Amino acid sequence: MLLELDNLSISIGGQELVREVSFSIERGEVFGLLGASGSGKTLLASALCGLLAPPMRISGGAIRFAGETLHPGSTKQLARKRGRHVFMMFQSAAAALNPYMTVGRQIAEALQSAHRLSAKAALREAGALLEKVGLRGDLVSAYPFQLSGGMQQRVLIAVALGLHPELLIADEPTTGLDAAAALHVLELLRSLQQEGAAILFISHDIRTVSFLAKRTGVMCGGQLVETGETEQLLAAPQDSYTRELTSAFNVLR
What we know:
Blueprint: E1 3-12, E2 15-25, E3 30-34, H1 41-48, E4 56-65, E5 68-71, H2 75-79, E6 86-89, H3 93-96, H4 103-115, H5 119-132, H6 149-163, E7 167-171, H7 179-194, E8 198-203, H8 206-212, E9 215-220, E10 223-229, H9 230-235, H10 240-252
Parallel strand pairs: 3-8, 3-9, 6-7, 7-8
Antiparallel strand pairs: 1-2, 1-4, 4-5, 9-10
Helix pairs in contact: 4-5, 4-6, 5-6, 6-7
Family: Belongs to the ABC transporter superfamily.
GO molecular function: ATP binding; ATP hydrolysis activity
Keywords: ATP-binding, Cell inner membrane, Cell membrane, Membrane, Nucleotide-binding, Translocase, Transport
């Protein structure tokens, strides 16, 4: 098992924002985390990467990664897994990219940090990675504001391809994209899985979750209300909130 969450809780002051969430992800698996905005999905992702903003904190439970207990423990234990072992794609690719650096330099810096490449070799590899995600290699000299939202997401996927993380956390990666760009991003994520990465795929969109995830957990009000095989969960939901989601999905379909 690659990732295990055991009764994980997140609090701010005396208020619990996420309560006793448990699930696991195997190596090479796509696990979907489905729920409305404010249900606690992104807080869980931030906790896994050691990115909770104080005064928010993990207030209970355990996180284990590849057999190593990361929590209970210091935030540094979570943070040192970030990047090469656990890579997070944020909902806003524009916010994740430095607006004052070319995308090529940003990819190259990540590669240098992980693989100790020379600056020249890292920039050359950055161009090859951009081409691998369907962008032109000469966009290494472009700045984030010169790219569309879908292109910015593909830049983040290019970074992930270069780092070869064991776990990719994709937080609402298709939000704001048109249908063609969203499909391209989903297909790229599937190719990452085929190369061996496990993926925690976070979304409020049941269609994208059903496209990628073998198993899915449903978040509501800071709790994991249901978990199971995605097809079975869609066909015979047990929780009332999941039934509401699947009913809306079937009407739209």
